[in-house]
Design brief:
The complex is a heterodimer of chains A (330) and B (348). Chain A is of the alpha/beta class and 330 residues long. Chain A is built from twelve helices and 14 strands. Chain B has helices at 12-40, 55-62, 78-84, 88-95, 130-142, 161-174, 196-199, 205-210, 224-241, 269-276, 280-290, 295-318, and strands at residues 70-73, 119-122, 149-154, 181-187, 190-191, 194-195, 215-220, 245-250. In chain B, helix 6 links the parallel strand 3 and strand 4 (181-187). Classes of the chains: A alpha/beta (330), B alpha/beta (348). Bound molecules: thiamine diphosphate.
Amino acid sequence: MAETKTYREALREGMVFGMEDDENVVLMGEDIGVYGGTHLITDGLYDQYGPKRVMDTPIAEGGFVGAAIGMAMTGMRPIVEMMTWNFSFLASDQIIQNAAKVRYFSGGQVKVPLVIRGPNGGGVQLSAQHTHSLENLYGHFPGLKVVSPVTPNDVKGMMITAIRDDNPVIFLEAGALYGTKGEVGEGDNAVEFGKARIAREGSDVTLIAYGRQVNLCLRAAETLEEEDGVSAEVIDLRSIRPFDEQTIIQSVEKTHRAVAVQEQWKWFGVASEVAAIIQEHAFDSLDAPVMRVSGAEVPAPYARNLELAAFPSEKMVANAARKSLYIEEK
Amino acid sequence: MSEGKKGAVATKEGSERLVELYRKMVLVRAFEDACGRGFRQGKIGGYLHVYTGQEAVATGLLDAYREGDRVITAYRDHAHALLLGATADEVMAELYGKGSGLVKGKGGSMHLFDVDNGLYGGYGIVAGHIPLGVGFAYAQRYTGTDHITQLYLGDGSVNNGAFHEAANLAGLWGKDGMCPCLFVLENNQYGMGTSVGRSTAQEDLAEKFRAHGVEAEKVDGMDLEAMLEAGERLTAQVRETGVPYAIEAMTYRTVPHGAADFFEKYRTKEEVEKWRERDPIGLLEKRLVESGVEEGKLDEYKDEAKEEVQAAVKFADEAEEPDISELYTDVYVGEDEYLGSDNNGGNE
Ligand SMILES: Cc1ncc(C[n+]2csc(CCOP(=O)(O)OP(=O)(O)O)c2C)c(N)n1
């Protein structure tokens, strides 16, 4: 049985599932309790579970993320909300230097079953300090798992998996899509990490994305179908680390062309990794260079027109696909 | 709390000065009211944090600003920009995302800069700006000037490491007279929806400065005259000695944290009402009327402020969006050509 729910509701349901399952699961974050949660993800949970399990924290990301790591190392399973991932830079020392590495440098004596979650990316004119996509940053560090669900079903199922995982999981939500709806599996619909999803079948070109860019690719695929008679396959990576190389390679072996799409900056990003993996493993299948579509190489601007120009658009994705097919761009 | 010398209004000169500052405060109030409307109309995007209720703090202290001084604050920064001399047109155009805005439409509400008038920025990351201000102050002393830095911060920021690291540096450098920084902690008692009592065990925030060797005092942030007195006395002292000092201004935002926040589960209507009775503009009005300023005159000033803001809204509304080529400017000094749009696979 699947029911239609918003991304926000599905996410909350995944956390509640974990809290019901294990009393060591607790929630922490700025204004998640009394205030009700800036994005209303934790709405109602403070009343339901009380202040010991739904903990309001001071505005001190390094401190409370570090404390959550300590809690996790000694038996608890905290889920920490970053009000937005932009603020995680203040906690990045704790995440990178402790959460990611302590298992290794303790010779496997400890584990860090921790989830850090919150909205990732930009798009609502928040300008330079509030508009970051951090998948490449955290994806860089061995020891962290990094996931980026885009559908309501995945956000619930991947949250359940994240809570059960004994490793620190960086859970990057499609914040701009909290209100979007989709079918969500009832009960335990856990979604395995490291398995990409074919969001649309196609035969002429593969569009590869994650997070809210998947929707951009789906719309571009429609346009390509209508205007150019091109059949585009869309792959939703879902998970940045672990990374599903096989699904990409198989798709490119079928379509012979690929476009990797990301909101973040082009240089040193996930799309570069996708391109490198394709050329390493499917070079002989390629009929065109792998294209990348990314955000402009500038800190995010505020003005609406500049911001629109700074992010990938459906048109840019469609044109990159056309370029790889050697047909005229529009 | 220091009482503040209530003598200013006794002299004609003092009274004129207060009337001038009254006009500034009502301009700030009218500006913020217009911002709220612009946000609801969808003309202002992103986040919008207004200063309503806190006007006396910056108005009183920035009156002691001298050319060459520097001012830095967080994202609740419209008032600071206006009080330092940016025009309502420039600030509103920025909020409307226009090319003639204070920072060319690139920063929006949270990132106002007006370096010529001493404003070294509004910043969006809580506590992130505090170390910068301490650095400004060191540089002011290092280059042999007697300028100072006014560093504004919120009560929510004092639990963050950046605050403690910066306050420690200030205390340390202050020992050699190398940190002419006046910290202005605007204690409006809430960081978003979390009260001081729920976010910090040491609720006497002035103590947090003292722990790092920075002397501090509390001042009534709703009382313009108290802020004026503290500003005059303490900026002079910091300028003279190069030793940092902190003011904990006790104030209140009588509006929600941000324009997008509708419900305020974390505080009661009664509490907000109680503070509205101590509204800094209302208090000042009472004082001015007592000292013989005609009420009608004050109303005129309010109307003038509204007109000025209305004109700014019109200016902003009609102004042009930034040219699209501005997307790639200001990334590097002198290298605007280097990262042109062709480097990005087609963002033009
Ligand atoms: C590092 C960081 N964490 C969280 C936020 C989100 N946030 C924006 S304003 C705010 C409250 C800050 O309160 P305070 O410092 O008291 O300033 P006030 O808003 O009262 O002026 C929070 C939590 C942020 N901008 N930066």
